[in-house]
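To: structure subgroup
Subject: Chain for Friday's discussion

All,

I'm putting the inputs and outputs inline so they're searchable in the archive.
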Amino acid sequence: MPASDSYDVVICGGAVVGSSVAYWLMAEPAFTGSVLVVEQDPSYAKCSTTLSAGAIRQQFSTPANIEMSTFGIAFLKDIGSYLSVEGDAPELSFHEGGFLFLATEAGRAILGANHRVQERYGADNALLGPEELEERFPWLNADGIALGSLGLSNEGWFDPWALLQGYRKKALSLGAEYRADKVAGVSVADGRVTGVTLATGGEVACGAVVNAAGIRANDVARMAGLAVPVEPRKRIVYVIDCREEVAGCPLLVNPNGVWVRPEGPNFITGLTPPDGYDPPCDDFEIDYRWFDEVVWPTLAERIPAFEAIKLVNAWAGHYAYNTLDQNAVLGPHPEVGNFHFANGFSGHGLQQSPAVGRGIMEQIVHGGWRSLDLSTFGYERVLSSAPVKELNVV
């Protein structure tokens, strides 16, 4: 690799967030520079994007998260206008099935407060009591449920691989370059990133760096003498077969964190591990005890048809988990202004990638947030240990 290798922007990580940034940069008329995306696994076989459950929702508690997902759904529904290459648009297989969050009496107030925020920012959902829930979903047992929040539109699930490849192919068609390699070092001089070192050898000079390294975000940050509170947390998805029909099932989230949704002829399910049972972890080992001891009993109680199910498959992936507040860290470092964070999505990176890619582009090209004000998620809150707590983490 020649020593003169140089790009205006180097993006560390080429999965859904990094490729979204690359696409938005190359599609921006005001940007006339060059972009290099460094991705160590071009097969994407074990990245968080391709191993995710592939969902999008507006039911958050933080206004900026709602706004990002509102743009995200508009982007997905008009994907051809953004990511078509020679007339070929990504086929996302979007299923607008909605989310259904259930709450016990203890969680009623929080669910109601979240609903009011969501309504204020244009989310289309309804609060339903237990009788209304059972009337709408005859297969549901609402015992112990005080309230449910159902997304009526603009929520559902889609193919994560198709979105990732759509970003990547469009970015490539516009002139971005991808390199199968790993960033092994970040050079900083006089408060500015000057280049990166690649694992295969050689230096790449650059005008800006975007940290889109997923679960390895803090590794990349440390190379620049910085830190970001992101670590890998394992999430297991179980695939189940149910012979009895459960018609019109949304993505249902039980109060104890167990969730389930349709997937083709089957269903996929998992859980948010309770506090104290969710250590940093980057392996792909599947723990079936969670399914036997928590997931299946919960499903059988909430949806009696699931008493007789068959476990047919399972896989493990990872959240890039922000230990501060489970929200993304976005934008430039206040002291190293050309080092940009796009990290710590805690399971929401896929659905937030359209807005995040556009926002990071705006920071690099225009020097600030333009379309959406994402300053809530700036790095400054990390320095001051001032969390912006997201209450709806799945």
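Points worth raising on Friday:
The chain has ten helices and 18 strands.
Residues 64 and 147 are 25 Å apart (CA to CA).

D.
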